[in-house]
């Protein structure tokens, strides 16, 4: 367990932003997924684009360590107003630096990054 | 409840020292107390300390109905396990080099057997059944003409299940090999009668029973005599089996802790069992909760539960106002699932979500009620975020712990 979790991580873990999923069949929703039960962690990211093609809203669901949940929560805030194209090269590793994850938890931002890029992939 | 510190529900990891024990220990440390070297035969300082150590030895022996001469002081159960297994392996190495143990033993036994394995001994690693117990028939089937020691724990430290050491011991006795039992989690919690149990060596720990850390003992049967080589040399203390100046305060602490356990065990275990049942009943309203290990053949203070669709690491952080332990050691990238639970055939996801709740001498009903409420809240919250919760595989596996 991350007893040394910092305030930002605890904030996102205790009060996750964008937790859950959009209603099934909601228009303009794209989904990306990474990790698996076998790997010990998994995450789904949903992106909802507005009329201007930019991200209007985002949701996540995650099963994994607190770092995984915090990274995914962070991403759902960060993506708002961005274009899909820009998210295809998003570096969640850098975005997650303020969470100060220990080295053994750095798989978390990479996994969230994979899910995000997959959600933003070209159709 | 202490508002400043997490609510302690990890009594199987360690216990606070009982104030009665601490009082006795402090009498052995300073100038006005029994600070002498118990081995000093030339003055009363030594004799006073020696008398206290021998009283403590008798107290430890009394809890398990052994002869005090069969109790060897050690630094803890880990050293006692090492002495029993390596000691037997070395003593009997010309007779045979085969050991039988189980995959769900404490690391003190597993790592000791692995160490011997690397040095040429053969180890049979038994797989427990789905209820977490190792059966006597499994042991019987594993024995060979080369088997010199069998090591099977009494109570498992993660899931609390009780092995039938009387039946396993009979098998070993009939075969003529030594039987070692790690009883760190059962002494003071279950009745132990070594006059009747066919056990050759048994490891004890003080700190699991409201005594100090750094104190333990090994029971070494006199008749029929268990044979061991010593691991530690230098002075021939403890009948040559464990040299080193005895830590009077540690021995006295363990003795007092075991005396209290002997006097209070039946009532205390009844009370703790009622607390566990209260906790389990409160959580039975929650779906997808799996009980790990045998439903009834388990020590009163343990409840090991898996929460489907929830990650153990996240659950522990969500419950950081409770002091608990998870089955997952969290020592690999994504947290290694419990080796004990995997050995029971639990899926990695369930193993990852396992939490050990352990209750003890100072656990109250109010604490148990509070903990159950907090667990239900945290599990509900994390499930609402979990992509696994609601998946078909988890749905079909849902059942309420009984």
Give an overview in words.
The complex is a heterodimer of chains A (123) and B (402). Chain A contains five helices and three strands, in the order αβββαααα. Chain A has 123 residues and is of the alpha+beta class. A three-stranded antiparallel sheet of chain A has the order 1-2-3. In chain A, α1 crosses α2 (66-78) and α2 (66-78) packs parallel to α5 (107-119). Chain B has two domains: 7-13 and 265-401, Aspartate Aminotransferase, domain 1 (Alpha-Beta Complex); 19-261, 3-Layer(aba) Sandwich (Aspartate Aminotransferase, domain 2). Chain B is globular, with a radius of gyration of 22 Å. Chain B has twelve helices and 13 strands. In chain B, α4 links the parallel β3 (98-102) and β4. Classes of the chains: A alpha+beta (123), B alpha/beta (402). The interface between A and B is medium-sized, with 29 and 27 residues.
Count of helices of chain A?
5
**Quaternary structure type:** heterodimer
Fold-level CATH name of chain A: Sufe protein. Chain: A
The first-to-last residue Cα distance of chain B is 28 Å
Biggest sheet of chain B, open or closed, and with what strands and sense?
A: 7 strands, mixed
Backbone structural class of chain A: alpha+beta
Q: Helix share of residues of chain A?
A: 25-40%
- CATH hierarchy, class of the largest domain in chain B: Alpha Beta
Helix content of chain B: 25-40%
Strand content of chain A: 15-25%
- Uncertain residue segments of chain A: none
What's the arrangement of strands in the largest beta sheet of chain A?
A: 1-2-3
What amount of the residues of chain B lies in strands? 5-15%
List SSEs of chain A in N-to-C order.
Answer: HEEEHHHH
Please compute the radius of gyration of chain B using only Cα atoms. Answer: 22 Å
Written as H for each helix and E for each strand, in order along the chain, the element string of chain B is: EHHEHEHEHEHEEEHEEHEEHHEHH
Q: What is the SS-derived class of chain B? A: alpha/beta
CATH-derived architecture of the largest domain in chain B: 3-Layer(aba) Sandwich
Query: How many domains comprise the coordinates of chain A?
Result: 1
Number of strands of chain A: 3
Molecular shape of chain B: globular
């Amino acid at each position: 367990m991350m007893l040394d979790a910092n305030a930002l991580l605890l904030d996102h873990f205790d009060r996750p932003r964008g937790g859950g999923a959009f209603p099934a069949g909601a228009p303009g929703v794209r989904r990306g997924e990474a990790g698996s039960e076998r790997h010990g962690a998994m995450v789904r990211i949903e992106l909802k684009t507005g009329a201007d093609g930019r991200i209007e809203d985002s949701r996540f669901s995650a099963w994994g360590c607190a770092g995984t949940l915090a990274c995914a929560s962070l991403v759902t805030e960060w993506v708002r107003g961005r274009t899909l194209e820009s998210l295809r090269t998003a570096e969640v590793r850098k975005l997650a630096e303020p969470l100060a994850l220990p080295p053994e938890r750095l798989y978390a931002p990479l996994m969230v990054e994979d899910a995000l890029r997959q959600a933003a992939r070209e159709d | 409840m202490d508002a400043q510190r997490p609510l302690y529900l990890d009594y199987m990891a360690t216990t606070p020292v009982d104030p009665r024990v601490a009082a006795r220990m402090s009498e052995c440390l300073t100038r006005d107390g029994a600070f002498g070297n118990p081995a000093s035969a030339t003055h009363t300082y030594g004799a006073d300390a020696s008398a206290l150590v021998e009283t403590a030895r008798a107290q430890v022996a009394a809890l398990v109905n052994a002869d005090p001469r069969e109790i060897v002081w050690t630094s803890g159960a880990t050293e006692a396990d090492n002495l029993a297994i390596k000691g037997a392996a070395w003593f009997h190495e010309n007779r045979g080099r085969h050991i039988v143990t189980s995959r769900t033993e404490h690391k003190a036994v597993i790592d000791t057997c692995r160490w011997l394995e690397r040095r040429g001994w053969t180890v049979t690693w038994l797989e427990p059944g789905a209820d977490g117990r190792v059966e006597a028939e499994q042991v019987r089937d594993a024995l060979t003409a080369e088997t010199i020691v069998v090591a099977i724990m009494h109570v498992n430290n993660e899931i609390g299940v009780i092995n039938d050491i009387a039946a396993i011991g009979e098998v070993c006795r009939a075969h003529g090999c030594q039987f070692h039992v790690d009883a760190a989690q059962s002494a003071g919690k279950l009745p132990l009668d070594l006059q009747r149990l066919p056990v050759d060596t048994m490891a004890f720990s003080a700190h699991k029973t409201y005594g100090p850390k750094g104190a333990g003992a090994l029971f070494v049967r006199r008749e029929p005599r268990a044979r061991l080589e010593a691991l530690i040399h230098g002075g021939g203390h403890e009948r040559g089996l464990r040299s080193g100046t005895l830590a009077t305060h540690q021995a006295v602490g363990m003795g007092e802790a075991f005396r209290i356990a002997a006097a209070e065990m039946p009532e205390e275990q009844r009370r703790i069992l009622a607390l566990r049942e209260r906790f389990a009943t409160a959580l039975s309203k929650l779906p997808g909760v799996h009980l790990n290990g045998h439903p009834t053949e388990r020590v009163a203070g343990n409840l090991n539960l898996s929460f489907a669709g929830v990650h153990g690491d996240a659950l522990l952080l969500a419950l950081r106002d409770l002091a608990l332990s998870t089955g997952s050691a969290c020592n690999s990238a994504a947290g290694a699932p419990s080796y004990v639970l995997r050995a029971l055939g639990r899926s990695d996801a369930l193993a990852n979500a396992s939490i050990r709740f352990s209750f003890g001498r100072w656990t109250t009903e109010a604490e148990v009620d509070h903990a159950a409420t907090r667990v239900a809240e945290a599990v509900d919250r994390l499930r609402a975020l979990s992509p696994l919760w609601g998946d078909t595989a988890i749905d079909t596996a849902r059942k309420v712990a009984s």
